[in-house]
Amino acid sequence: MYFESTLQPLITFTEYGLFCQPGNFYIDPWLPVDKAIITHAHSDHARWGSKEYLCHRGCKPLLELRLGAGTYQPVEWGDIIYVNGVRVSLHPAGHIIGSSQVRLEYQGETWVVSGDYKTEDDGISGAFEPIRCHSFITESTFGLPIYDWEPQEKIYDDMRSWVQGNRESGFASILIAYSLGKAQRVSVCLSAITEKIYAHGAIANAQEILRQSGFNLPSLTRITPETPREELKGAIILAPPSADGSSWMRKFQPYRTGICSGWMQVRGNRRRRNADAGFALSDHADWKGLLKAVHETGAEKIFATHGFQSAFSRYLNEQGVKAYEVKTDYGDMEEENDSVGDSTI
């Protein structure tokens, strides 16, 4: 379907997900399987019900938080594991804490599954590592030239200035950020100007799990029904997308809202979300980052998944790179509904 070669490919695309037939395992399956290798803990890549999960050490506590008790095999980046004769190793993807690319080698053929990734080092998720391979499966969430990120430090400076301006005007600052990945980066950014950051339970849960696992992240103050309104006046508050516009936010009035998402690169999206500010802070590679990653793999074949895969694969083919569009069940939006719930909020 996606291959010109008559040889059996190392990875095939099935109704269960990415399947390595020689190794008899799946990568980020969207249905329960016997053995799953997980690139990262976001809900579209890590799903409940499989018998065994292999993942990076930093991903394990997040999988346990989201999926519950199970059989988890944590490994370090670069560790070599053989699964039914297939050489498997995980390598930094730079997407969120614990995120990995999966490298497979078998009978002289090397494939890399990127999962989700970004090429700018955010300082907490591990720097993306280009891996030479024959075939590369890449995301394309922001696979259009209009997506061109500013450096992280520039965005951080803008975010801190916005918060300080809100303080001076008597407003609380609510930053809308995904609970895994974005919220950790925003907390690091804002810890430079405050000793106390408040957070919705979904974000507080994930942050505390990571802190307990040894990651050097700021402590967050969990908001509960008992948190006094007066205490929250002028505060800095982190909230997941699912809380945006909800009744939960009323107690913070007066407040201003800033959305942290790559989609904020397009100004119309900020207006549609009725936000006071938009910060194009993304956990995904932009157009240039995607092209750089593809080039550095040296891959003969590129398979573009979720996002603007049609446009991205077409552009690669026009540049002489053999690329294929692959439709999957992975999210094509940067923000999914948060599944790290909090029953007290």
Automatic annotation (TrEMBL):
Gene3D superfamilies on file: Ribonuclease Z/Hydroxyacylglutathione hydrolase-like (3.60.15.10)
Residues annotated as transmembrane: none
Entry's Gene Ontology molecular function annotations: RNA endonuclease activity
Protein name according to UniProt: mRNA 3'-end processing factor
Species of provenance: Flavihumibacter solisilvae
Phylogenetic placement of the source organism: Bacteria, Pseudomonadati, Bacteroidota, Chitinophagia, Chitinophagales
